[in-house]
Amino acid sequence: MAECNSTVVSFVSGKGGVGKTVIASNIGKGLSLLGRKTVLIDLDFGLRNLDIALGVENNIVFDLSDVFSGNKTIKEVMVDSNGLFLVPASQVKTPDEVDFDKFSSVITELKKDFDFILIDCPSALGRAFEEAVSLSDRVCVISNPDKASIRDADKIFSLVGDKGCLIINKIRLDLIKKNKALNVDDILDILRVPLLGIIPFDDDIFLSAERGELVVNQRNSLAGECLCNISKRIFGEIVPLKNFKKVKRYKF
């Protein structure tokens, strides 16, 4: 596969707890289901969670720090999760203990074999964030519909420039209906950035993540459908946003 055909996408957020890792893992699976060879890279050294999201935490032997140190090749640390591949971060080393100078060469190597390279960044600014953004074709900024998350997202967009696009997670449709929460238009009026997708607050995501499963694999899951649609948009398809007013489960 020619290197120029690969797409690198980073998933970032200004604060923790917005659902970034769950979104990255499900979109990775969504792209895999579309027939695209996809690899996920966990850059959250010391606090990795992608392995749990994919249900492969017991399969991790080596990690990305072994590649940076020259002890292992990227293929030797890679873990296969039903056709979706993972390059794990170290659970022991912190970002300050990691030399990211070789990260660019890692991305170059992965581009030889993968259509999509997805990077799950730590929820903080720093070297990992800077390296990931600089090497990415697109940066997905994850925000919840609360003021603190939106303000942090605004800061992130000021750093990533025109690579950035917004994914709004945990939209509470019931509260929006009662005018007790910001709706999508309110958030876009504040941020004024391209919108890639919205995901409603859905217990399916939490329950699936706890089991190490991916909600995009579940039929009749509203969140899973939204994540599949975002995967298709990243793939290049034109998919309209979900009209939640027609979703009976939320009793509009």
Give a written overview of the molecule.
Helices cover 37% and strands 17% of the residues. With 252 residues, the protein is an alpha/beta fold. An eight-stranded mixed sheet has the order 3-4-2-5-1-6-7-8, with helices on both faces.
Characteristics:
252 residues; alpha/beta; Rossmann fold; eight-stranded mixed sheet; 37% helix; disordered C terminus
Break the fold down into its secondary structure elements and pairings.
Elements: E1 7-12, H1 20-33, E2 38-42, H2 50-53, H3 64-68, H4 74-77, E3 79-81, E4 84-87, H5 103-110, E5 116-120, H6 127-135, E6 138-143, H7 147-160, E7 164-171, H8 173-177, H9 184-191, E8 195-200, H10 203-210, H11 222-235
Parallel strand pairs: 1-5, 1-6, 2-4, 2-5, 6-7, 7-8
Antiparallel strand pairs: 3-4
Helix pairs in contact: 1-11
Would you state the CATH class? Alpha Beta
Counting H and I runs of at least 4 residues, what is the number of helices?
11
- The SSE string, one letter per element, is EHEHHHEEHEHEHEHHEHH
Cα Rg: 18 Å
Shape: globular
Q: How much strand?
A: 15-25%
When the domains are counted, the total is 1
The main sheet comes to: 8 strands, mixed
Counted beta strands: 8
Average pLDDT taken over every residue: 87
Spatial gap, N to C terminus: 48 Å
Low-confidence stretches: 246-252
Task: Give a short overview.
The protein is of the alpha/beta class. It has an eight-stranded mixed sheet, with helices on both faces.
